[in-house]
């Protein structure tokens, strides 16, 4: 009896090893795209959200970075021309720079001769317009950060519903089918959460860049107004 039991245990172990060897190549052969596609149809909108967020982040990052590039001589040239009474030359300097700060100061230069309050209002309005241009589409990243995880959870829920429906039809629970199905459906949740986190990070990175630029523009605007308050201007 002991001999027969040993043979049965040995045969069982051999069968398990053979099954593991057969399953291992199938798992190893799966690439990332094939693994993601196992998440079901819900992966299509999740992937679309990923590419939309990526395009928006890259485009806004480049735009804000270019707008943040500082011309160290800009304010010095404007100050020199204003103190010399050469307003046209100061406006020409702003036009040649073609940056958010230069366009804002140019709007103030065109109002020189009017009350300071009018000049401040013109600069403030121009600054708001520039900030609105910089913040364009950034809120979409915030929307993606909220929607992507929810889509992932929806995919998982539909997957669980499908698994229990198959169990009901089969009339019994196969732990391999249930665990395998859950493994596949959890891909949707993992993908949605990952894309949501990336979109959330990108959203705050761009907002921080815009805030730094706003602070810089406000500082230069105050310096420009102080310049106009100097005697002889």
TrEMBL record:
Keywords (A to Z) from UniProt: Cell membrane, Membrane, Protein transport, Transmembrane, Transmembrane helix, Transport
Subcellular location: Cell membrane; Membrane
Protein name: Outer membrane transport energization protein ExbB
Principal location listed in the UniProt entry: membrane
Residue spans crossing the bilayer: 39-58, 138-163, 183-206
Superkingdom: Bacteria
GO biological process per UniProt: protein import
Membrane topology, as annotated: Multi-pass membrane protein
InterPro entries named in the record: ExbB/TolQ_transport, MotA_ExbB_proton_chnl
All copies of domain MotA/TolQ/ExbB proton channel, residue ranges: 98-218
UniProt GO cellular component terms: plasma membrane
UniProt family annotation: Belongs to the exbB/tolQ family.
A Pfam family recorded for this sequence: MotA_ExbB
